[in-house]
Specification:
9 helices; single chain
């Protein structure tokens, strides 16, 4: 993997995230918190999927940067494998990943944000975006009827191209600052 032209010259810390929706949410929340990531030498880098973490860790290991990551609980095995591959887990399983700058979301970042904003808050966002009718149609589908509203909301944001990134940003904009999900708060504190 060639990162030429990807990292800004001023980057001293790279925060890896799975995709563009995660990047949008992290950068939006950082701006709301008054954390000028670029000015602080922090670059959020979307990997295009967690299975690419090993390639990113190898390529970034050749740079003089501090590395961290925000990842989904179900994907932890890929994170551990990537860290082991490049020798970044010095004490193997005894070193908590948070000590290495790697922070796990309960399910995924979208789920953390949905819980923090709340069902009613998210429904208001969907309505403001003019997509409430689309969400209601999704709720009426046979496969969705027995699911909770939270599960339906999670499915909704992943059901159309570009929607996940847009709502990642919108959820971060609507997030009450006293309800920032723990892994997101921790990774921003670590990075800055």
């Amino acid at each position: 993997m060639n990162l030429a032209g990807v990292l800004a010259a001023s980057t001293s810390t790279v925060l890896l995230v799975e995709g563009e929706s995660d990047r949008a949410a992290v950068e939006t929340l950082a701006a709301r918190l008054g954390l000028p990531l670029a000015d602080l030498g922090v670059q959020v880098l979307a990997m295009g999927g967690i299975t690419n973490i090993g390639h990113h860790l190898v390529a970034l290991g050749e740079q003089s940067v501090r590395l961290g990551c925000l990842y989904d609980a179900a994907e932890e095995r890929f994170v551990i494998k990537g860290l082991d591959r490049v020798g970044l887990r010095p004490f193997a399983a005894t070193t908590p990943l948070t000590d290495l700058g790697f922070f796990r979301c309960d399910r995924d970042l979208e789920d953390e944000l949905i819980r923090a904003v709340g069902v009613d808050g998210f429904l208001a966002l969907i309505d403001a975006e003019g997509e409430l009718r689309s969400f209601e149609r999704l709720q009426g589908q046979p496969a969705q009827r027995e699911r909770t509203t939270t599960q339906q909301l999670h499915r909704f944001i992943g059901s159309k191209g570009g929607r996940k990134e847009r709502y990642g940003r919108r959820l971060a904009e609507a997030l009450p600052l006293d309800r920032v999900p723990a892994p997101l708060d921790a990774v921003l504190r670590w990075a800055t």
